[in-house]
Amino acid sequence: MSIEAINEQLLRAIGVGVALLDVKSFSFHFHNDTFEEWFGAPEEGAKLNDVLTELDIDALRTGLRENRRYTAETRFKKKRRTMVVAVDFTPTLEGEQEIAVLVCQNITRIRELESMIDSYSMMVERNNREIKREKEQVEKLLLNIMPRAVYEEFKTFGVVTPQLYDPVSVLMLDFVGFTDMVASADPSVTVTELNDIYSAFDRIGEQFGCERIKTIGDAYITVAGLPDPTPDHAKAAANAAIRFIRYLERRNSSHPNQWRCRIGLATGAVVGSVVGIQKYVYDIFGPAVNLASRLQEFSEPMQISVQDDMAVVLREQFELDSLGKRQIRGFDEQEVWRLHDSSRIMSQAGS
Q1: Contacts by 280-283 with C-beta closer than 8 Å and gap 24+?
Q2: Contact in structure between 23 and 99 (CB atoms under 8 Å)
Q3: Is the pLDDT of residue 297 over 70?
Q4: Is residue 287 one of the residues assigned to a domain?
Q5: E strand or H helix at 78
Q6: 78 and 189 in a common domain
Q7: Per-residue confidence at 262, pLDDT binned at 50, 70, 90?
Q8: Short-list 259, 131, 237, CA closest to 193
Q9: pLDDT recorded at residue 278
């Protein structure tokens, strides 16, 4: 087959650029119109690297010699657009002369699509990371307002079944003179200090297995024995109450604002559930909650009042003294006890 016998019409129809080159010098013997349209017409005597300046000629020689084929890609500007062309060299014989057949295919659109896919994949990956981060933030927020077991049920089923927990021990705390402090102090200072104190209470409560339920202004409610039953729930709540007061005493010794609290402790049954539809709140209801709230009223600043039934449980490990029988609103008259910070068997955990 002679060079002149190549069907130019076919070469144009298949939409590829074709050129024939001398293998030794890589000078052009022939090129079709598509090749010329993409790369321009080679001048007389022009060689391959004059036209395809990015091509590695040494790699081309090695590929033809060792593999009888060489493929590569080249990029160039064409009317403000970057074209990507795949080049494929195959050696053949024209009589005794070795000829390299160069076939060029425009893969610009393929590379553009690949780039779009890569960009899309990166965008999806970035969005997935953001979604994961937001999910973690939501999870962290929900875990701040409900126990983990309750959160897992809510995440799985979308609802939380109200549960009766009996018995548990409830610790109810509020601050003395908080209303006056809010009215007279810088609001940002008050909120910052309150946040510091509640964060410390959370850490202390966690040491003793107490689950903080909520805060309402200066009221702080935590429970021992919920959601997982704990045989020593009364002891856990008592230890947490003592450590709360110790923490405030140490803090007051180095801060100008003096925070003094009153604490009520009660044991009994509560019902726990998520309430609300648009704004979820995990809350507890029941006699133990109401009684702990009432017992606060019998506490002096920085003191802890305990119901009679709970005092019976704590008496062997903690020091208590009787405040006498008291009429408790919503309950029968019963004896109220004061818990002192000098237990006979101290917990190993520190504040």
Answers
A1: 280/142, 280/145, 280/146, 280/154, 281/145, 281/214, 282/145, 282/146, 282/147, 282/150, 282/160, 282/213, 282/214, 283/213, 283/214
A2: yes
A3: yes
A4: yes
A5: strand 70-78
A6: no
A7: very high
A8: 259
A9: 67
**132-146, 198-212, 247-261: lowest mean pLDDT where?**
132-146
pLDDT score of 348 more than 70: no
CA distance 83 to 106: 7
Q: Is the residue at 26 inside a domain?
A: yes
The range of the structural domain enclosing residue 40 comes to 3-106
Query: Based on the domain organization, do 83 and 174 belong to the same domain?
Result: no
Which residues, 6+ apart, have CB-to-CB distance to 272 below 8 Å?
147, 150, 162, 163, 165, 226, 227, 282, 283, 284
Number of domains in the chain: 2
Residue located via tokens 């019902």: 271
- pTM summary value: 0.63
Shared domain check, 44 and 175: no
- d(CA 34, CA 15) in angstroms, rounded, equals 7
- Residue 280 in this model has a pLDDT that exceeds 90: no
